[in-house]
Amino acid sequence: MTKLNNVSIIKEANVYYDGKVVSRAITLADGTKQTLGVMQIGEYTFGTNEAEIMEIMSGELDIKLPNEEWKTLHTPETFEVPANSSFDIKIKSVTDYCCTYIED
Fold first, then answer.
1. Spatial distance between the Cα atoms of 83 and 95, rounded to a whole number of angstroms
2. Which of 56, 76, 103, 51 minimizes the C-alpha distance to 89?
3. How many angstroms separate the Cα of 60 from the Cα of each of 2, 40, 77?
4. Superfamily of domain covering 8-102
5. Torsion region of 99: left, alpha or beta (phi above 0 gives left; psi -120 to 50 gives alpha)
6. Span 63-73, pLDDT tens digits
7. Buried b (16+ CB within 10 A) or exposed e, 68-84
8. How many CA atoms lie within 13 A of 96 on its CB side?
9. What's residue 1's pLDDT?
10. Are 99 and 46 in contact (CB under 8 A)?
11. What are the extents of the domains in the chain?
């Protein structure tokens, strides 16, 4: 989906790693919570509270999910991250993403 209709947006940005990762939180009409963001070149670790579906729309990156080996993603690509875990990511070129939070 390239266009989102009928969304609520929180104006304040989520800023991580000295501004190298920035996202905006949105809520879809059906109550689904997402963040839309951009990651600059670098290496990052992110923790999760809820399960997440990460949609990588553009960029070059490697990802290490819990209990898995490093793998290279070829965008566009989607991956899931379990709740209460963390994952490592190496961004090789500016990366555009959408994260959807999965509530139990």
1. 23
2. 56
3. 19, 11, 11
4. Jelly Rolls (2.60.120.10)
5. beta
6. 999 999 999 99
7. eeeeebebeeeeebeee
8. 5
9. 62
10. no
11. 8-102
